[in-house]
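Write out this protein's structure.
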Amino acid sequence: MTITNITRSPEPCTEAGWLAFQYHLEQPVSREFITGLRPLGTLVFLEALQQPFFKVENEHYMIKGLLHDTSIRVAVHGDHQDEQIPIKDLIARL
């Protein structure tokens, strides 16, 4: 999957030491894309909801999004901004 743009998230979370970004994607988020994120951390995928939601949690970051949306939110602790590199690398392989 190609990340077409990365913007700062409109939802602030800097007071807790975290920085959030919207990763805009070339294609809508698919079920395969969501399950492909599993190596990055603990995956929660609530597929039975009217608007299916997923979250991947790791000690230093969190990834959240909706099935069929064209962006995902990535929040990374300010001291671990380099953690975005493996996230971007895995997304590029999906």
